[in-house]
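Ticket #4471: structure export looks truncated?
Reporter: QA, pipeline team
Priority: medium

Steps to reproduce: submit the single chain below to the structure queue and open the exported record.
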Amino acid sequence: MIQRLGNVLTRVSYKYLPDPFIFAILLSLVVFIMGIVIAGQTPFQMVLHWQNGFWQLLTFSMQMALIIVLGYAVADSPIVNRWLKALAATAKNSRQAVYIVALVAVVGGLISWGFGLVLGALFAREMGKSGYQRGIKMHYPLLGTAAYLSMMVWHAGLSGSAPLLVATKGHFLESKIGIIPITETLFNPMNITVIIASLVLVPLFALWVHPKNNNELLPIDAIISREELAATAELQATYAAEEMTPASRLDNSRILSWIVGLGGLIYIVYYFSTKGFNLTLDILNAIFLFVGILLHGTPMRYVKSVAEGTKGVSGVLLQFPFYAGIMGMMQSSGLVAIIAQWFVAISTTTTYPLYTYISACIVNLFVPSGGGQWAVQGPIMVEAAPALGVSYPKTIMALAYGDQLTNMVQPFWAIALLGITGLKARDVIGYAAAIMFMGFFIFAIATFLPA
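Actual output as written to the record:
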């Protein structure tokens, strides 16, 4: 039955799911109409809300573009490429491949959402290439879906935006809820149970939706050209020894790479020693940058690898402003507050965490940023929590679970993965939706556990 569900949803996504850019436009129109009908805004006010938010994700867009490019360059280095190949070679068939990619993605996502997203995407691509090179037919769309599962678990992990924000001195809700350490959120019994269940069950969910019939499998060479697959990952120097000029010697200088790479790593070590394990996007990109420079050996090899990686960032650059506009309309029109209040109004002490989770699932479709969603929905949920006798940590984590679950049907985060894997949203979203429906019950049941 689960396999049939995956097949049905995949067929539906292939037939009806448009390109992610069209999806962003359609979602913008839906929110525009909701603001007029539900929030009582005028069309002109909604246009202003849209434009006020439109450019608010420029910094984040650049961070995401760098994650794709710099992460690609690390995986493209000779050493990491060999490691990924060795791990991919352990899969003997398509089902094993899907399970291994899903497990790696889930572990990576619990460490850091950015790390898990890039690691999963790079590993899925390498797994597909490994199957192609070894003559093993692997279902590449499901490998891409398995890689995306990092985004279904991340907010319960070490990079969870809401629990990390409320544990930070000076956060915007400190006057209301104080400082809540991660021992009460990320490491409470409820969330530990969720983490264990995610590690055990989520990779199995990916395995369960795998098609039974080998004729239904779509290998990587049906998505990516054979010429590209045949290209070696290791970049070769383009200058022969007798053609070396002073300029070309600098281009291929290992000394320059070591100076820059080691200098950057010294700062990163200092950062973690003074600030603890605070893995921000900037630090993650810094790690990718300086490690990549060292792994490639020479500046020009690194430049060529980065140039190749930039092919996957067009979706980020084009679509993220539209999602910023959607977030601007949701927040400024009051739609987030209205949706949240609907669920607060029907809640009891027992059901409030569950309804917080469900409402967060809905809001995440329109505000697909963990930190952004906490900023607009968090104040409403924590305001009602004490009146209903529900603890702040439980409310925070219930919202976090909803924020992460519906990433599976929201192409916003998939854009980076699609850029690396070469897949289209319709290849991934159908399977991801089937896994999301199964995963719903992990987090729903967790909301009734003691926090």
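Status: closed, not a bug. The export was complete when the record was re-opened. Leaving a note from the reviewer for reference: Residues 232-242 have pLDDT under 50 and may be disordered.
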